[in-house]
Write a structure and sequence with these properties.
The chain has 555 residues and is of the alpha/beta class. It has three domains: 5-203 and 366-447, Ribonuclease Z/Hydroxyacylglutathione hydrolase-like (Metallo-beta-lactamase, Chain A); 209-357, Rossmann fold (3-Layer(aba) Sandwich), CATH 3.40.50; 465-554, Ubiquitin-like (UB roll), CATH 3.10.20.580. The protein contains 15 helices and 28 strands. The structure holds zinc ion (2 copies). One zinc ion (ZN) binds at residues 19, 72, 74-75, 161, 390.
């Protein structure tokens, strides 16, 4: 009897980001993507939210490799952190994806800890007990791969992030016919498919349809300097910007480290065509008339230190934004970044630039398929079992409903969340809830343990400030040597604070004196008094609850 196969979701089900799953037999584990997610304002100091790497660390001896479906941060961004914690495994992916992985590993100085194994479109590779067929898929980055993973329990088909673009910029279409053939023989036992746009009707516009719109914007801005921003891995968009610029007789310069590196990589791999004569260094830009250049920049999400945000703030070393500039944001804001992008657009406008964004002209299309494309995938793959992945909870639910509307029995669609596991066995698929925590936080460069108390403390510090109250006691005589000290940060301002502080000092001095008259007083009882007296007074007089740090010093 074939052994059971489990799929454990270590991230990406419930939030969009930090995608990672472990596909396991008794003695082998295949990691499927290992991405990161950026934190939100409720997590001050958190650099990054990682998948549940602990699950992999506990099974490190079983790991036979890691598949990376494509080069987006939410799929590759945590690999280096995993390697830094002592994991080591070969990584399989397309040339462009591995190029991006290599940059990340290089940044963290862990390139020697993982062998990068390049796979070609439609290649079949044996990895431990698994045989993986890599199929080309269209998405907003070159080199995306669907994985058809043959396991002891049949084929698990992972869609990767995908859209079904009939006219991809590079001509590399999704290999739907092969998915259809696998569906016929041997059949798709379990489908794991992208749910990002599962609640959006219709289908996503082809990437190549952006080219004509971009060309129009270039024509309308003849004589002006054009600065474009898009995701630095989106080489198909960059290609279309380049084509519009070259047709307009402009030279192209890249701005921003990741854009420069990715463009270099894509040109080496012949995924991006920029005529040498049209390619200039950013240092040369000022020597051309505004209408003769196009700058391709990072910073489409308004990230604080990105090239475009720096220029918008007037502190770029490479360009000074002025009224002869047109800035094209060929992107949409990732949820959570809207305010940053809006601020950047205001800054650019204040400096006189004209800003063209995807709300005005159709110059951005999603990399994720909408309901019609998901319908096509389900119809072609005809899976026996289905688990929606890559989405917020509402996306997962919408994807389940879509699959059921296409004829899947509801009991054949399992709704899993981060930390859940599904078990594929002869008699079918079963859900085991919360076998592991499902995430992992990186706080100011260090890994945060299971106790997340420090995050709560940071929220209090950010919202209410901190008050330190220090009592100075001679433990031998049992007397206070002077008034308590009160220090605060981010609490109250001005005269109010001064008079409240004076009152607080008197109140705490009395409370400590009172406690010292108690024959059984000790350090901790005095500390308690200081904390209670301070907290009660501050709360009553101001209605606030700053963090109170009581200190007792024994002289
Ligand atoms: Zn993704
Ligand atoms: Zn993606």
């Amino acid at each position: 009897m074939p052994q059971d196969v489990t799929v454990t979701f270590l991230g990406g089900l419930g939030d969009i980001g930090r995608n990672c799953a472990a596909i396991e037999t008794d003695d082998a584990l295949l990691v499927l993507d290992c991405g990161q997610m950026f934190s939100n304002e409720e997590q001050p100091g958190v650099d990054s939210i990682l998948p549940d790497i602990d699950y992999l660390l506990e099974r490190r001896d079983k790991i036979v490799g890691c598949l990376v479906t494509h080069g987006h941060e939410d799929h590759i961004g945590a690999i280096a952190q995993g390697l830094l914690r002592g994991l080591s495994f070969p990584i399989y992916g397309s040339a462009f994806t591995l190029g991006l992985v290599h940059y990340r590993l290089d940044e963290h100085r862990v390139t020697d800890k993982a062998e990068l194994i390049e796979v070609a479109d439609d290649e079949v590779v044996n990895i431990g007990p698994f045989s993986v067929e890599f199929l080309p898929v269209t998405h907003s980055v070159p080199g995306g791969l669907i994985s058809a993973i043959t396991t002891p329990q049949g084929v698990i088909l992972h869609s990767s992030d995908f859209k079904l673009d009939p006219h991809p910029v590079d001509g590399r279409r999704t290999n739907l016919p092969r998915i259809g053939a696998i569906a016929q023989d041997p059949g798709v036992r379990l489908l794991l498919a992208d749910s990002t746009n599962s609640d959006v009707p219709g289908s996503t516009a082809s990437e190549s349809s952006m080219g004509a719109n971009l060309a129009d914007v270039f024509r309308e801005n003849a004589g002006r300097r054009i600065i474009t921003a898009c995701f630095s891995s989106h080489m198909h968009r960059v290609q279309q910007i380049v084509d519009a610029a070259v047709a307009d007789g402009r030279r192209i310069a890249t701005l921003g480290l990741s854009m420069r590196k990715n463009v270099t990589l894509a040109r080496q791999l012949k995924l991006l065509d920029i005529p040498d004569a049209s390619f200039i260094d950013i240092e040369e830009v000022e020597s051309f008339a505004p209408g003769e250049v196009c700058i391709v920049s990072t910073g489409s999400q308004g990230e604080a230190r990105s090239s475009l945000a720096t220029a918008a703030a007037g502190s770029s070393r490479w360009m000074t934004i002025n009224e002869l500039d047109t800035v094209i944001l060929s992107s949409h804001s990732i949820p959570g970044n809207e305010a940053r992008v809006s601020n950047m657009m205001n800054d650019l406008t204040r400096r006189g630039a004209k800003v063209v964004h995807s709300g005005l002209v159709e110059i951005h299309t999603s990399g994720h398929g909408k309901r019609d494309e998901l319908t096509t995938l389900h119809t072609v793959a005809t899976p026996e079992w289905f688990v929606p992945v890559h989405g917020e909870y509402r996306h997962l639910v919408a994807h389940r409903e879509l699959a059921c509307s296409l004829g899947m029995k509801p009991e054949r669609v399992l709704l899993a969340k981060d930390g859940d596991q599904v078990v594929l066995r002869d008699k079918g698929l079963a859900l085991r809830e919360k076998v592991t925590s499902g995430d992992h936080l990186l706080l100011n460069g260090t890994f945060l343990g299971a106790d997340r108390g420090v995050l709560g403390e940071r929220q209090v510090l950010g919202q209410q400030g901190v008050v330190t109250v220090t009592a100075i006691v001679d433990f031998d005589s049992g007397r206070q040597l002077c008034d308590p000290w009160v220090e605060s940060r981010g609490w109250l301002d001005g005269d109010d604070a001064d008079s409240l502080r004076d009152e607080l000092v008197r109140l705490v001095a009395d409370a400590v004196d009172g406690e010292l008259r108690n024959p059984s007083w000790d350090r901790s009882s005095v500390l308690r008094k200081v904390r209670r007296a301070s907290g009660g007074f501050i709360n009553k007089s101001t209605g606030r609850r700053p963090m109170i740090v009581p200190v007792v010093i024994d002289t």
